[in-house]
Design a protein that fits this description.
With about 160 residues, the protein is an alpha+beta fold. The chain folds into two domains: about 30 residues; about 100 residues, OB fold (Dihydrolipoamide Acetyltransferase, E2P). Strands 2-4-5-7-6 form a five-stranded mixed barrel. The C terminus is likely disordered.
Length: about 160
C-alpha cells in the first residue's frame, strides 16, 4: 500500500484567520464604494441660483458648477453663428450671458431659461448648457392639479 502522507506538513488554517481575512476584504470593498459614491455626488451637484443670488456680495465663494434661472431681457439677444449672447434677469438684477452652441427651438427674446455654466471674473455668465422653460406646457398640468416643476427648491442662499 502506498502512503499518501505529504512530505511537508501543511499547517491547518484556523477558523479565526478566515474570518479576519473576510472582514478585511468586506471593509475594503465597502470603503471603496463609499468613496466612489461621495465623489460622484460631489462632482454631480449643481447649485440653483437666481440672478440676484448669484450677484449678491455674500456669494463670493461659489462652487464650480452653477445653475442660474431667469427671463431673457427683450432686445438683448445677439446671435453670430453658434455664438449667442443676451442678458437674463430675475426682475431685480440682470446678468450678461454668453453661450456657444445650438439654442433650443423654443428659445425666444423673452423666454424663461435655465443656464448651467460658470461666472467669469468680468461677471459674464459663460453658459455650457441652455434650457428653455415652456410655461404653456405646464398650465394644463396646473389646472389638472399636478405640481409645477418650479416647485423644486432653489438653493444658494
Amino acid at each position: 500500500m502506498t502512503d499518501f502522507t505529504p512530505d511537508v506538513a501543511v499547517p491547518a488554517r484556523r477558523r479565526g484567520d478566515t474570518r479576519v481575512r473576510t472582514a478585511i476584504v468586506v471593509l475594503a470593498v465597502l470603503g471603496a464604494v463609499v468613496v466612489l459614491v461621495l465623489r460622484a455626488n460631489r462632482s454631480g451637484v449643481v447649485y440653483y441660483y437666481t440672478v440676484s443670488e448669484l450677484l449678491a456680495p455674500s456669494a463670493s465663494a461659489r462652487p464650480r458648477g452653477l445653475r442660474v434661472t431667469g427671463k431673457v431681457v427683450p432686445g438683448t439677444v445677439l446671435q453670430e453663428g453658434r455664438a449667442l449672447s443676451f442678458r437674463v434677469s430675475d426682475g431685480k438684477n440682470s446678468l450678461p450671458v454668453c453661450f456657444n452652441g445650438t439654442s433650443p427651438g423654443t428659445f425666444t427674446d423673452s423666454s424663461e431659461v435655465v443656464l448651467e455654466g460658470r461666472l467669469d471674473s468680468l461677471t459674464v455668465f459663460r453658459a455650457s448648457s441652455l434650457l428653455t422653460k415652456c410655461p404653456s406646457k405646464y398650465k394644463a398640468q396646473e389646472a389638472a392639479g399636478k405640481e409645477h416643476p418650479d416647485a423644486v427648491p432653489q438653493g444658494g442662499s
